[in-house]
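Hello again,

I reread your note about wanting to compare the complex against the isolated chains. To keep things tidy I'm splitting this into two emails, and this first one only covers the full assembly. Below are the input lines as submitted, including protein chains and any nucleic acid or small-molecule components. They are followed by the predicted structure of everything together. The single-chain runs will come separately.
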Amino acid sequence: MITIPYITALTTYFSYGLLFAFGQLRDFFRKIFDWWSKSSLQGYAPICLGLEDFYVRRLYLRIQDCFNRPISSSPDAWFDLVERISNDNNKTLKRTTKVKRCLNLGSYNYLGFAAADEYCTPRAIETLKNFAPSSCSTRVDGGTTTLHVELEKCVANFLGKEAAIVFGMGYATNSAILPVLMGKGRLIISDSLNHNSIVNGARGSGATIRVFQHNTPSHLEKVLREQIAEGQPRTHRPWKKIMVVVEGIYSMEGELCQLPEIAYVYLDEAHSIGAVGKTGRGVCELLGVDTADVDIMMGTFTKSFGSCGGYIAGSKELIQYLKYTCPAHLYATSISPPAAEQIISSIKVVNGEDGSSRGAQKLAKIRENSNFFRSELQKMGFEVLGDNDSPVMPIMLYNPAKIPAFSRECLKRNVAVVTVAFPATPLLLARARICISAAHSREDLVKALEVISEVGDMVGIKYFPAEPEKQQLEGDRVKLE
Amino acid sequence: MANLYVRAAPTTDLNRNTEWFTYPGVWSTYILILFFSWLMVLSIFACSPGMAWTVVHLSHFFVTYQFFHWKKGTPFAEDQGIYNRLTWWEQIDSGKQLTRNRKFLTVVPIVLYLIASHTTDYQHPMLFFNTLAVFVLVVAKFPHMHKVRIFGINADQ
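Full-complex prediction:
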């Protein structure tokens, strides 16, 4: 539940209306100019149908310098940001040779494996010399090396499941698995805020999709009862299979799903694996759910393990079935051997099998960092989403003008943040998403807090009154539909 | 007044073009924009209040007809064009008829019409144009007109 001050909601709608009106006006004049000057491209079909590039041209391009910033070092706690300049009001951006050292608050570097690590990197380089950078083959042809077998066993053991299968790309894992498991005559019930890869996979499977309100098990139950009673559309025969798809940590909200109350589940732990739970085993451990209750666990290695790729873990029969049918296993190149070695080494560090306690230290550090940062931000009066222990914390901005203001002012003070707006988030709810890492030290966090507080005052996003010592929240709350 | 907070529950509407209309504050913003545009017309043209309401009513007709009932599709490409044959009015609330939002949007032009005709004392020619505008808008919002294209106007190739 997001709590917005009413005036802010009104001004946000008004701002978007104004931006939309200006965009339409400029498009109108552009149409007149184009009709006046003959175009040299006669007889060609237009690239865009109708107005589908309106948002990109008139709204996104204006603040283009806040997105897609190139970096020239590894994404550790501090990194080198390449500066860009624009000569035509942000329509095109040119890279300069100047580089700025900034604090990194945007990378999914939860356990600090993104930069060179004393245990993982030598082993990855060793593997790069022994095996090649790419296996140059699919898993069924010649791409299964001893590393791949070891990796799958390692992942299955880490999660407490019987078997696992690993793919080269996290997005492709979701979009290739869902069509294999579900098809026509089946039902997928997914959370309204699920990631685009799940939406794509569900659409590609041909199954019927129903959406339930984010994190509301009561609404999920209502949808389930309704669907089981009605059956398939038009024929009203019972569904052949029903699956509920939820995520461990939602990347835009930072919230944990209410796992204990849902059943027959596909759990996408892209952000939560390695980052939450006492020993890093994800939301199941954090919420006290036995992994045998979750039927299919999916995750990626990009976030906490500093590598690339995705995995699916489940029972032996499920994984055997997937190895026969999944197109990502049969036709896509297998995961790169050095990347696989990086995952194996980082799992060993997290488990403590490398002989030191760095894994446990990292896990404790990220939990401590997240809780400290979140409580400090809330004390200052920002509206921060996300549950405790979650390393992802979105700070709500709302007004469209505050998005570039926040981003640019923070960059001036050498802090790099990621801001997210429509259409990745709902129109009203633009936010700046902060990702805390185990590589951030206490001084880094304190500096970040100072900068964010100063910029927050300048931009005006401290929507709640700042609390001096006690937990107080004044004002009426009106529930409107 | 500054401490009045609202709760925004996340919606299940997957269409990013229309789900902003389900959040709190939209209706108030709409009414406030109409009121302030009336004030602006009054101050710029220095006409009678009735003429100002007529001007607001007719420009509201043109703007809402263009964006609710004429333009089809969405202003971004991420949904891969599944709504390309539907106008905004046909997209809201996932096509369900007679929801609260639709009833509100049908009532607004009618109330504007009543205010405009009352403040101009029901004189012609304002009455004629106002009546035409409200007639077209209200008929366009009937449930029976869902996905109907009269004489093929605004249909796709």
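For quick reference: Chain B touches chain A at residues 1-12, 14, 16, 19-20, 23-26, 28-29, 32-33, 71-78, 81, 84, 100 (CB under 8 Å).

B.
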